[in-house]
Amino acid sequence: MSRLKLSVVVALLAVLVLLPGCVELAEDQPTPTPIPTPSESNKPTYEVKKGTIVQTVKALGRIAASQEATLFFKQGGRMRRVYVDTNQKVKAGDVLAELETGNLQTQIAQAKINLDIAQIRLAQAQDKAGTSTALAQAQASLDQAEANYTKAKNELDKLKAGATAADLRAAEQQVAAANAGVAKAQAEYTKVYDAYKKGGKGAPTAADLRVASLSVTNAKAQLTAAKARLSQLRAPAKASDVTAAQQGVESADAALKAAKASYDNVVTTQGKGGDYDVQIQQKQVELSRAALQILEDQLELAQIKAPFDGAVLQVQGREGDDVKPYTATVTVANPQSLQIAVELPATDLSKVQLKQPAQIVFTNFPTDKITGTVVYLPSLATGNDPQLAATQRTVRIDFQPPANRALELGSLANVTVNTQEKKDVLILPNTAIRTFGGRKFVRIAAAGGRNQEVDVEVGLSNETETEIVKGLKEGQLVIGQ
Question: Could you give the angle at which helices 239-269 and 132-161 cross, rounded to 10 degrees?
C-alpha cells in the first residue's frame, strides 16, 4: 500500500472515532424556555347589569347653629378687655369685648350731667316766661315731626338702595330656621298622632292632637312669612313703592315746617324777654344732647355687643392686642336650632342643590346614621374659583337631632350629599373600564378565548361604579383590569 493511501485511511478512522462524541455533545444542549403568551384567565369578570347609581359629594362638616354671627370692631385700636370665654352664655345687648377708649367713659358721664343741667335751666326759663306748658307742647310736636321726617327719609333711602347683603343673609337664615321649625312640628305631630291611634293608658288625647296640629299650622305660617320677607328683599323696589315713600317724605317735611312755625309762634307771642331765654336754653339742650350722642357713638364703635341670646363659639384676641377693623373677634350662636355647616370645594359646590338629601355620621357617634336636607346655599355665583372665601363655599344642612345624644356646637360629622340619582341604567364597576389617550373601552370575554375590545360611552359615576350609556348590553361579561 502506498504512503498516500495509508494517510487517507488513518484520516477516515479518526473521523469515525470522533463522530459519536460530537453527536452526543449536540444532544446534551439545553432546550430554550418558550415565552408564555399573555393570559387574562386570572382576572375578574363583571356582568353588565341594570341598577341604580347615585352620585355623591362627601365632606367633613361641623355642627353649627342656624342663627350664628361673627362679630368685629368697625375701627382699629388696642384691645382693652374681652369679657367672655368660649361656651359662655350671653344675652342680647351684652358687651363681649371692648377697645381702649381713654377717658371716654368719663366724658360720657360729664356729657350726661351737662344735658341734665341744660334741661333744668330750660325748665327754669320756661317757668320764668310763663310759657312752660305751651312751649313744652310745641317742642314735643317739633321733636315728633323731626323724628317722623328722619324715619320717612331713611325708608326712602333704604328703598332706593335695596336690601343689603346682611339683610339677605339674615332673611335666608330665618327661612332655614322656619323650615327646621316646620320639620320639627310635623315630626312631633306624627309622634302624637301615632300614639293617639294606638290608644291605651297615658295615650295623647284629642286635645293633645289638636295642639300638635296647631303647632304645625303656626310653623308653616312662620315659614310663609319668612319666605315672603326673603322674596321681598330679593325683588327690586317697585316704582309705586318709591313714589309712595317720596310722598311720605314730602308729607313729613311739610309737617316739620308747620311744627317749626308753630314753635316759633309760641316763642314770639308768649312773653317777651323770658322767651329769648327759653330759646337759648332750648338750644343749649340740643347742643348737650348732640355732644352726648357723639360720645356714645364713639363708645358704640369701640364695643362688640351680642346681637341675640346664645353662646360664644369662638374668641380671638387678648387684652393688649392691636386689633384691625373688621377682623373676626367673637362668634356667637344660638344653640336652640342646630344645622350642619359643610365647606365644599368650588367644583363640588356646583353639584349641590337645595332640598337634596344627605346622610350624616357624627364622629362622636359613628354608629348613628342621620338623614338631612340641604337648606342653604351661598347666594353668590361661585364658578370654579378655588380661592373663594369659606363663607362663599359653605352649605347648611337641616337634620333631626337623634334622641339621647348630646350634640355640641363645633363637633365634626361626615356628610354625604346625594347630588344625582339614575335608576334602571347599565352599570359596571370602575375597575372594568379602561382608559387610554382619552378613549374609554372594555374587554369583553368572547367564546373560544378571543377577547374583544369595545369602546363605551359613560354617564354618571361615583367612587365605585359608572353608568354605561352606549357600547354594551345587559348580561355581557367584561374582563377587569
Answer: 160
**pLDDT for residue 349 is more than 80:** yes
In this structure, what is the dihedral angle of CA atoms 328, 301, 172, 92, given to the nearest 10 degrees? 100
User: Which residue did the predictor score with more confidence, 128 or 81?
Assistant: 81
312 in a structural domain: no
The amino acid that residue 202 corresponds to is G
Give the whole-angstrom CA distance, residue 398 versus residue 341.
9
Q: Are 119 and 132 in contact (CB under 8 A)?
A: no
Q: Would you state the cell numbers that stand for residue 460, as one nine-digit string?
A: 354618571
User: Are 363 and 412 in contact, with CB atoms under 8 Å apart?
Assistant: yes
285 belongs to a structural domain: no
Q: Indicate the burial class of 245 (C-beta count within 10 angstroms; 0-12, 13-18, 19 or more).
A: buried
Does residue 354 have a pLDDT over 70?
A: yes
Which positions ≥6 away from 313 have C-beta within 8 Å? 65, 68, 86, 331, 332, 333, 409, 410
The angle at the Cα of 87, spanning 394 to 321, to the nearest 5 degrees, equals 85
The DSSP H or E segment spanning 112 is helix 104-129
- CA-nearest of 290, 244, 333, 263 to 63 is 333
Note the pTM of the prediction, 2 decimals: 0.44
Q: What is the CATH number of the domain that holds 203?
A: 1.10.287
At residue 223, what is the residue type?
A: L
